[in-house]
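Hi there, hope your week has been kind to you so far. Do you reckon you could talk me through the fold, stretch by stretch? Thanks so much in advance, here it is.
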Amino acid sequence: MTLSPHISQTFEPTRQAGLARLAAFLPRTAAHYARERNHDLGPDRRDNVSLLSPYVRHRLVTEEEIVHAVLSRFKLSSAEKFVQEVCWRTYWKGWLERRPTVWSDYLAAVAARRAELTANRGLAKAYEQAIAGQTGIDAFDAWAAELVETGYLHNHARMWFASIWVFTLKLPWELGADFFYRHLLDGDPASNTLSWRWVCGLQTLGKTYLARADNIAKYTGGRFTPRGLAEDAPALPSEGHPPAMALPPAASTSDMPEAVLVLTEDDLHPESLPLGGTAIKAVVALDPAGLYPDHAAAVVRFKQAALADALGRARAHFKCDGAIVSATGEEAAEAVLKAKLRNAATAYMPVGPQQAAFAPMRAALQSNGVEVTVVRRAWDSAFWPHASRGFFQLKEKIPKVLDSLSRTPALL
């Protein structure tokens, strides 16, 4: 899959592009966003949403930067809806971080469902029609095509799409979540997987989302008039949630005079990492391509270009050399060992492919006498403890948490 020049420019994978998008949308983050955010008027009419999600996903632009910019212009009460949407992504990550088996169970289910496609011709045909946008449901088919072409869908369209996938087309939700995950530029294990679970009644247990033709017509400006949609949305069977794990304490680099910085796709703003006084002598950037063998080519290219952009900034900021190596295999550990330093530092990697791939690399480094310190941003440390239950528990804490972060000079 290749993106059109227009779409490629829309999501230029650089921090500069993300900051420019934030600046352009900033005046619309208060009343305009609250009023217009649910409308999906088509891929060429996106001025009602920020389109920042691919940048936030990879932390080319961080959550705290966005919220700080908004609150420098508006009161929290005026921009509450927009700030809450930023915090939803934080909430999803914190929730999954405390229940990592939900991700591993999902991966196992995707593999099982893919095997079913081989054995069940009827299911395979329905699935292929769905991802090709050939179901005959006008809205759904348009969104399937838009996702594949652009790597993006409006959030409301994602909910409608997932609901139709599960309750009208009767397709396994895991395959739908996998379709999104492989094509979204902003796709991540937490937001994507848990949002699909929410639509199915697996996240907020028993609560589902039903796509209705009149609602779709209203919020798409009459672009679509879908027919034959399900009239009810019974929750899928669930065994409940695993208990929330405690978060590990945040690590510190205070006793590290110098280190190699390991840069990953999960946090591409190395200039603002909480590294204290540690001198970064070299940067090793982990190319994520090998972690996503089934993803759309455009998604992998976005990740690689974003990583290269971050590496360039890191080299300039820390005034050191840096190189890109594969995130898989022995090459990554060897690149760190080549620096001949006793310490390495990296940003916290949430549950997902990079976290899993980093575990053997960390073990290899430690077996060769290199201590690896994983630093966690204060934003995550402040919000994730409130992600033990539903979002509204965290929502109530937003003003207090933001106030505490505002008193930390390095953040807000």
About this structure: The chain has 18 helices and five strands. The CA atoms of residues 28 and 330 lie 47 Å apart.
